[in-house]
Amino acid sequence: MRRRKRLPSQLAADLGVSHATVSRWLSDQDVPNIRSCRRLAEYSGVPLEKVLFVVGHLPRVAETGPAQWPEFREYARQKYSTELDEDLITMIEDLIERRRRKKYGSKDS
Length: 109
What we know:
Shape: globular
Number of helices: 6
Radius of gyration: 14 Å
Strand content: under 5%
Distance between the termini: 25 Å
């Protein structure tokens, strides 16, 4: 949003959801539903399966504890250099981190 100089209300309009919905996502009060995940995937160019996994709709296979996650920002820059801007990468990173904290109960993960 920052890179595109978009406000949450503008992102909401881009995605076809309410401003309140985006606010709940950003404040960790809610996660995107399947339809919103599809819109986020289309908007960002990230595969739908990855978006669904990040927000918790798809379980990890053979979960054994906190995994060593690759640095998402570098991966996203390499893999999706034209599709993702810095704000979307930051938003996805934030969702990943929130999911980790929720899953493993740690505030410092």
